[in-house]
Design a protein that fits this description.
46 residues; alpha+beta; two-stranded antiparallel sheet; 1 helix; 2 strands
Length: 46
């Protein structure tokens, strides 16, 4: 069984010259998702 789920991810990175180095990646919290959608003008749909 599958749902049309979207997983939003928080990624922390640093720039090393022309490369990006990922420090951390994790699932966004509910508050982070709300803040992102509010700032980007996109609806969460829930």
């Amino acid at each position: 069984m599958s749902r049309n789920a979207v997983t939003e991810t928080v990624v922390v990175y640093v720039e090393r010259g022309e490369r990006l180095r990922i420090i951390s990646a994790r699932k966004a919290t509910r508050n982070e998702r709300r803040m992102y959608h509010r700032e980007s003008g996109r609806s969460i749909g829930r």
